[in-house]
Amino acid sequence: MVTRESIIEVLKTIEDPELFLDIWFLGLIYHIGVEESGQVNIEMTFTSPMCPAGPQLIGEVKERVGALNGVTGVEVTVVFVPPWQPSDEVKQTLGI
Fold first, then answer.
1. Torsion angles phi and psi, residue 14, rounded to 5
2. Helical H runs in the chain?
3. How far is the CA of 21 from the CAs of 38, 39, 70, in angstroms?
4. Fewest C-beta in 10 Å: which of 52, 54, 64, 84?
5. How many CB atoms lie within 10 A of CB 14?
6. Which residue segments constitute the domains of the chain, with CATH numbers given?
7. What pTM value is reported for the model?
8. Residues ≥6 apart with Cβ < 8 Å to 88
C-alpha cells in the first residue's frame, strides 16, 4: 500500500515553474488522503487564484503520484480557503 510519506517524497520533486521551488516546501499541499483501495486524494492551492501554471501543476501531481506502486487513482482538489501564505522559511528563501 502506498504511504503518505512516499507521496510527500514525490511532491517534493514537483517544482513551481515560476518560483523554482517544490510544491511541498512552498506549502501548496493542504491535505493528503490515502484510501485502502489505493485511491489518493490531495487538496492543494496555488500561489495565486489566477496562477497560470495551475493546470500544469495538477497534471504533474496526478501523473507522478499516480505512478507510485499501489496507487489506483489520484484526485486533486484545488482550494483557495485558506489562501496561500508563504512560511517564514519560504519568504527567506525567496528574499521577501
1. -100, 115
2. 4-11, 23-26, 54-66, 88-94
3. 28, 27, 27
4. 52
5. 21
6. 4-85 (3.30.300.130)
7. 0.93
8. none
**Which triple of cell numbers denotes residue 54?**
495551475
- d(CA 21, CA 85) in angstroms, rounded, equals 15
Q: CB of 29 within 8 A of CB of 42?
A: yes
pLDDT over threshold 90, residue 8: yes
b/e 41-76 (16+ beta carbons within 10 angstroms → b): ebebbbbeeebeebeebbebbbebbeebeebeebeb
Give 33's contacts (C-beta < 8 A, 6+ positions apart): 40, 41, 42
86 CB-near residues (< 8 Å, 6+ apart)? 26, 27, 94, 96
Helix (H) or strand (E) run with residue 83 in it: none
